[in-house]
Amino acid sequence: MPPRDNTGTNGPWFTCLPGCETEVPCGPGRHTIGWEAGSLRLTSHPDAEGELVLAALGGEKARCVELAEAWARHADDLSILAIGPRHPADEIAVGWDDVTAAAQVSLGPRPVSGPGLAGQPRPGPLASQPRATLARATARHRQMQEAALAAQRRRDDILSLLALGYGFQVRLIGQVAATHAARAGGNQVRPALVAAIAGRLAPVAEEWLGIDPDQVEVSLHQGPGWGSAELTGHGEDRRLRVSLPAGWLASVWACGLTRVGRYLVVAVEQPGWPQARALGLRSPGAEPEPLDVRAGPGGPGDVPHWEV
Amino acid sequence: MNRERAETFLRLLAEAELREPALPPLPAPMSSAAPLVMMSVAMTRVAWALTAVGALDPETARTVLADTDLALAARHRREPPEAGVIGPASRSRAAGPAGSRRPAGPAGSGRFASAALLARTGRRTTQASAPAVPPGGPDRYVPLGQMILCHDETISAEFGLMSYAHTASGARLIASWHARDPLSSGRRGPPSVAAFTVTDDRGNRYALLFDTKGRPEPTCDLSLRPDPPPDIGWLDITAPGEQAVRVDLGRPAEMPAPEVCDVDLSTGEHLLNRVAERLLTLAPDYPAQLATMAPVPLASITAGLGVAIAALEAAEVLSPRSPVPGRLATLCASLGIDGHGITAAPALDLPEPWLSMLAHYHRRKPDTAPAGDGFAAVAAALPELDGIRLVLLGLHNCDGCTWMNALTLGSWADRPVNHGPLGLEATFPLSIWVRDSAGRWHVARSTGWHRDAGEATLALRLTPPLTRSCTWIEVLATGPSAEVRATLPLDWGYP
Asked: Does ipTM come in above 0.90?
């Protein structure tokens, strides 16, 4: 699948990320799926497009191909940010057994409803205009069935993507964030992006400053520059206020650059792998310093571990 | 109202949930019926509160909750040897400070079965509404207060006619009924009206159709078929073997014009007032605790309220200086409910209706004799409040309860029912109180409705019940932007 055009001013967001691979159960065996320079690679399916045509004609679709389709479908899905990992120790315990078992669960025709948000109409006697009522009830039932099926499909997609492992999860999060950063989305996506940054910055800030993660306040930076960071107050009123662009999630967090040594990395000046130049804050309120960083071995899930 | 901050608050709350200490491994499944427990009550309460005030659209709320549900489920590990085996989970997570965890999803279908991610269509949809009632329809409401008797060897029954209503969906008599077995004096089911004859002042003949329309059992609609002209003067109703009863439809509703005034309540305050009303309606379910001033076990209702209040403030639908959270804290304290998380200092200036009800509950000698059965003729169409026209069509007492029969017109009648986690109908935003002729206040809560093309028949239960010595009531209906007061004389009839 070709990468989306998320080229920033300093190059594509994924320039600091090496390729990665994993094995997935596909048909009777296990196939290798890879990620390289923003693209998913199906090394065991050199003619994936041909397989898709066959599948459209009634043939069975290989899991690898389904995964590539799911990856493309969710490349801008904000739910990936809400569900995916926040840091390397935030382990997502989804395996292929889980994916298989979940796919076998039939949601059936029950309605999709959030807790406490959509109740069931109470049963009652027929209205004085039974035909109209029946038609409305049938239409509502059909809508609920369709929504339930779509929700099941979506859940199966996301579980499959999570089962690819931490390295792929992080790269997909980077892809989603980069897509929205490039779009410069409006109010509708801002809350999800703010929460996504807050959820990933707060644990790092706790390590960096010893601040309670609940005391980290994030806003979305838009416009030129990397953003801002300041520490205010004392005790319970202590706050770390950080403003970062959505692209930080892709070019910094997803590349494993969030904290290098004693620095909080806020931007990447010269992306690259295994060497790059980043901008790091030694403390909140300080000017960011250029840092020449080098990727070392041993990062979790093929995400590099960087050192100054 | 700040919708962006509202959604951000909910999403950040989800982040805080995920930051909680490592989730304990799930023990071996105990039974296929064991629930999986995930999200905190606080999350669902915040989502509900923000949705109820319109600061968050339901689709977004459901998406955030579903994502959080799956995110939590994905972080559960199963203890060996069950690792890698999908099966039902069995133990709830320990309740956090925000309250207990909710059971989620169908049992026995795997830990991801409950994580019902929502399908996104790529755009936010709005609820399509059915055609509205055409303006200038034949709406006509007449108080009646007459009895129709019918007797034979198998049944002795009465219909107490409370009102006549004629709207776009047809004409009907709103009635309470009472039926006995003449031999055993035991209760019977509703009497048949198929053999009744009905004629109007123009000689037109009608059939009567019995329909409960979701109301409590002793009340019903007797619909006229075919639909009569809008300006008929009377109806003669004859039960088999009985004399005709002339029902005068020219009787005017004797009531002063309702007063309408703006209210100085934010939507957040209005919602919290409705939560208080919910507590006040549920409290009498625990008479022993009320009598002894022991804590009323309603913490499940108030759990997460403190966080919900913070969310309403973040969404700018509740001022941080609002007195309502403090009043709610006082009400909880009066009922001995804790664990609500409200941080506002308790306020002493409780609204008069709340004080009236608390005084009633905490009397040393609470009522022991139920209010006597009976019905009162009422027909009053209140001015429109926030897109809803409320029409009161009769009161009746039965088995110690008082019910107000009502009809609502407007777009609300076509929206899907949404009870919400507190049992409050989120799409019906009116708060309804009744003050009786002795000065006591009663809260009205909808317990059932029947929707049909721009109309909804509504049964409102009054707590505490009215006595038949009550000669008039003042109905106070409050919406987010205005309130209406209407004084209605009560003419009680007896079954």
From this structure: no
Rounded Cα distance between A76 and A88, Å, is 22
- Among candidate residues B196, B218, B248, the one where a domain is terminated: B248
CB contact under 8 A, A128 and B14: no
Q: Looking at the domain assignment, is residue B281 inside a domain?
A: no
Domain CATH for B191: 2.60.40
In a domain, B162, yes or no: yes
CB within 8 A of A287, min separation 6: which ones?
A: none
Total domains in the fold of chain B: 2
B74 at A interface, C-beta within 8 A: yes
Given an 8 Å threshold on Cβ–Cβ distance, is A114 in contact with B62? yes
- Does A261 score more than 60 pLDDT? yes
Residue B208 lies in a domain: yes
Of the candidates A77, A160, A159, the one whose C-alpha atom is nearest the C-alpha of residue B74 is: A159
Count of helix runs (H) and strand runs (E) in chain A: 8, 11
Q: Domain span at residue B243?
A: 140-248
Q: How far apart (Å, rounded) are the C-alpha atoms in residues B55 and B432?
A: 23
pTM of the shown model: 0.79
In chain A, positions 153-192, which contact chain B (CB-CB < 8 Å)?
153-155, 158-159, 162, 187-188, 190-192
Final residue before a domain boundary, out of B55, B84, B104 = B104
Q: Which residues of B touch A199 (CB under 8 A)?
A: 15, 18-19
B325 within domain boundaries: no
pLDDT digits (tens, 9 = 90+) for B274-309: 999 999 988 888 888 887 888 888 888 888 999 999
